Amino acid sequence: MYRLLPAIMTATLALPLAAQHAHGPATPGEPGQGAFAAIAEIVGILRDDPATDWQSVDIAGLRRHLVDMDLLATRADVTAIDLPGGARFEARGEARTRDAVRAMVADHAPFLAAATGWTVTVEEIDEGVAMNVTGETEQIRALGFFGVMTVDAHHQQHHIAMARGGTPHHR
Questions:
Q1: In a 3-state reduction of DSSP, which class is residue 93?
Q2: CA dist., res. 18 & res. 146, Å (int)
Q3: Residues 6+ apart with CB under 8 A from 109
Q4: Which of 2, 11, 46, 89 is most deeply buried (CB count within 10 A of its CB)?
Q5: Comparing 153 with 147, which gets the higher pLDDT?
Q6: φ, ψ for residue 40, nearest 5 deg
Q7: Helix, strand, or coil here: 150?
Q8: Which pLDDT score, from 0 to 100, does residue 152 have?
Q9: The dihedral sign for the CA sequence 61, 53, 44, 151
Q10: Residues 169, 158: contact at Cβ < 8 Å?
């Protein structure tokens, strides 16, 4: 099977090129930068839903949340400290990043605990937060802070809820 993988990949990668030559120029499917793409996707969902309450829509609120996600992922400084059964993640940042870290980690902790059965606690520290996570030790340590922050795919559901004007972390 592994010998077939290069042939399958070559054939798969050639399909879009062949389709482009057969049917004219291809239209990109990705609308660009990640936050813009997420907003574009949500706007499409809202526009396709005849039940959308346009007076409640809050795309600006969704954008603020996406900026927080970006700051957490790209600007937060994180120190991992082994704990018995897991790890302590101290996430820090300056000014706007610190605010994003505090909001994102505190909001995500209950979802993480519910999805995994792990014990998750959060406390404010200078310039950020500390999140203690215990449960499946090897998994927690291997995922690290950023991997742990992605556990439980509730993000898409709360993005649409935010865009509809709801509170950010309702499923």
A1: coil
A2: 38
A3: 120, 121, 122, 131
A4: 89
A5: 147
A6: -60, -40
A7: coil
A8: 83
A9: positive
A10: yes
Cα 6 from Cα 84, distance rounded (Å): 44
Q: pLDDT of 54-106, one tens digit each?
A: 999 999 999 999 999 999 999 999 999 999 999 999 999 999 999 999 999 99
Q: Are the beta carbons of 80 and 69 closer than 8 angstroms?
A: no
pLDDT the model gives residue 87: 98
Cβ proximity of 129 and 101 under 8 Å:
yes
Mean pLDDT, the chain, integer: 84
Read out DSSP for 50-75?
TT--TTT--HHHHHHHHHHHHHHHHH
Per-residue pLDDT at 24: 64
H helix runs in the chain, sequence order: 5-23, 34-48, 59-75, 95-116, 137-148, 155-163
Which residues, 6 or more positions from 125, have their beta carbon under 8 angstroms from its beta carbon?
90, 92
Residue 23 has pLDDT above 60, yes or no: no
Long-range contacts of 135-139 (CB under 8 A, 24+ apart): 135/85, 135/86, 136/86, 137/85, 137/86
